[in-house]
């Protein structure tokens, strides 16, 4: 738990360092079709703080498997982030994450609690341990996504070095 | 150029936020076989500051294609980082990157200079623009790699959520 909380607490700083100074067109870049830009991912992470992680942990602790989680809206950010600046999204994410970790601490989760179960609308039974592990892995998963989009912004400019840059190369294969 | 410099300047902060608080075993985790851990990548980035980016930019500006770049040692970090702490590598990288950007500024590179050519030991002719673009893309490429290794640390703990976490899922396919 302490490990997970330390990692979750550092994500806003990581994203801030990575994204705050980026040119606007990089924030809006995606990988084609319906893929997400760094701007979209940031909105998605904010929506997760509001509706996913701690709210679901509470449902597990209060209702167990008797109450199915609210389905998570994977497209909420396309409405919620409209007209927002990157700076304001970064600020909001930092505040919400800090609040999430305060709320998590207040739940005083014990080692035994980690095995308690809730009900996911698609997967059925899941444990609190799986939910909290997913929260951490989800941060890294989206950090991969954002960094991948950014790495590919100079796909053409790098010329022959593309051969040595795995992420850039894969976009061309 | 200004864009590239801003991004290059933020990478030490990003890596610091991402890595400084991580448990030691996460820093040492890799993707099997000869793949690199976050600790290895950090040493590789340090070696790049010392021998790759600015030194090669200097060769292009001073010697053009007449002098082939020194081949880059992709394994230097396995010797250089031995016995080092993560904190000391992060500190060193931050200092070296700052120095690199000061050195780069001192070169007073013009728009016309970006088309000047040097000679890469494997690729042959490359431009200064390609070298500098690669420096930026290389930061992001390794940020993808580090985040991917970290995302996979909870591959088993996430349970059924694996299906929704692309990077974790791909490690199981």
Question: Briefly, what is this?
Answer:
Two copies of one chain form a homodimer. By secondary structure, the first copy, chain A, is mainly α. Chain A has helices at 2-19, 24-27, 38-51, 53-63, 76-80, 86-106, 128-151, 166-172; strands at residues 117-120, 124-127.
Give the helix/strand layout:
2 copies of one chain form a homodimer.
Chain A: H1 2-19, H2 24-27, H3 38-51, H4 53-63, H5 76-80, H6 86-106, E1 117-120, E2 124-127, H7 128-151, H8 166-172
Antiparallel strand pairs in A: 1-2
Write up what this structure looks like.
Chain A is elongated and about 55 Å long. Chain A has helices at residues 2-19, 24-27, 38-51, 53-63, 76-80, 86-106, 128-151, 166-172, and strands at residues 117-120, 124-127. The mean pLDDT of chain A is 94. By secondary structure, chain A is mainly α. The first copy, chain A, has a two-stranded antiparallel ribbon. The termini of chain A are far apart. Chains A and B meet through helix 1, strand 2, helix 7 and helix 8 of A and helix 1, strand 2, helix 7 and helix 8 of B.
Alpha carbon gap, first and last residue of chain A: 40 Å
Question: DSSP strand (E) fraction of chain A?
Answer: under 5%
Largest interface, chains and sizes: A-B, 50 and 50 residues
Shape of chain A: elongated
Content-based structural category of chain A: mainly alpha
Number of strands of chain A: 2
Largest β-sheet summary of chain A: 2 strands, antiparallel
* H-E string of chain A: HHHHHHEEHH
Lateral arrangement of strands in the main beta sheet of chain A? 1-2
Q: What oligomerization state is this entry in?
A: homodimer
In helices, the fraction of residues of chain A equals: 55-70%
Radius of gyration of chain A from CA coordinates = 18 Å
Unreliable segments of 5+ consecutive residues of chain A: none
């Amino acid at each position: 738990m302490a490990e997970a909380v330390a990692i979750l607490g550092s994500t806003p700083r990581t994203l801030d360092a990575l994204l705050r100074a980026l040119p606007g067109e990089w924030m809006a870049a995606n990988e084609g079709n319906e893929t997400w830009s760094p701007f979209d991912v940031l909105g998605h992470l904010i929506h997760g703080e509001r509706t996913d992680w701690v709210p679901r942990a509470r449902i597990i602790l209060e209702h167990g498997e008797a109450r199915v989680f609210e389905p998570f809206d994977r497209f909420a950010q396309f409405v919620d982030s409209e007209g927002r600046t990157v700076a304001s999204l970064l600020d909001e994410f930092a505040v919400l994450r800090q609040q999430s970790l305060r709320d998590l601490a207040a739940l005083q989760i014990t080692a035994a609690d980690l095995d308690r179960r809730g009900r996911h609308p698609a997967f059925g039974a899941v444990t609190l341990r799986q939910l909290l592990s997913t929260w951490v892995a989800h941060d890294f998963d989206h950090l991969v996504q954002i960094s991948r989009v950014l790495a590919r912004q100079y796909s053409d400019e790098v010329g022959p070095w593309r051969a040595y840059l795995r992420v850039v190369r894969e976009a061309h294969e």
